[in-house]
Amino acid sequence: MQIDPDGTVEVIALPDDRATRDRSITSRLSGPAAPGCYHRQATMHLHDNGQHNRLPDNPIATALACVWRGLDITYDATYFLPGRVVITSVDGASHLPPDLVGEALAVTEAVHLLLADGRTAPWGEVLRAASTAREGAGRGKSA
């Protein structure tokens, strides 16, 4: 799965071969990948130098990371995951479990609707919408 800062979300297929998959992720991120673990069954890959390179904030991927992690990772809305984020299974070799895809799609849709057309909302409201969407996706358990 790929989440862009503009709210575009795409379910993607990555190559099975690890080296080719790693190159594909690096290409999609336009730079070296840094893995982040916000859910025990998934890895969120982001640009390793994204903050330094001043890549745009990705509030949708950040909201997803927060609800998967079970806490606000933004330090009072001052830090957001930078740039495009690619999500793989934790081992990178298999597809994301269908329940995680469902959760991710529900959260991204809810946050995208809340922030569509340049609207702003308090970060707490964004996290509530993301959490409600995750619960509505049928899981609602902590990662």
3D architecture notes:
The radius of gyration is 14 Å and the shape is globular. The mean pLDDT is 91. The protein has a five-stranded antiparallel beta sheet. The longest helix has 18 residues, at 98-115. The protein has four helices and five strands, in the order ββαββαβαα. By secondary structure, the chain is α+β, with helices and mostly antiparallel strands. It has helices at 18-29, 59-69, 98-115, 123-136; strands spanning 2-3, 9-10, 33-39, 42-47, 85-89.
Topology:
Layout: E1 2-3, E2 9-10, H1 18-29, E3 33-39, E4 42-47, H2 59-69, E5 85-89, H3 98-115, H4 123-136
Antiparallel strand pairs: 1-2, 1-5, 3-4, 4-5
Helix pairs in contact: 2-3, 2-4, 3-4
Short description:
With about 140 residues, this protein is an alpha+beta fold. It is about 40% helix and about 15% strand. Helix 3 packs antiparallel against helix 4.
Features:
143 residues; alpha+beta; 4 helices; 5 strands
Low-confidence stretches: none
Number of strands: 5
Question: How would you state the average pLDDT, rounded?
Answer: 91
Largest beta sheet: strand ordering: 2-1-5-4-3
How far apart lie the N and C ends?
18 Å
Q: N-to-C SSE series?
A: EEHEEHEHH
List the total number of helices: 4
Main sheet overview? 5 strands, antiparallel
Shape: globular
- Rg of Cα set: 14 Å
User: Which structural class do the helices and strands define?
Assistant: alpha+beta
How much of the sequence is in beta strands?
15-25%
- Roughly what percent helix? 25-40%
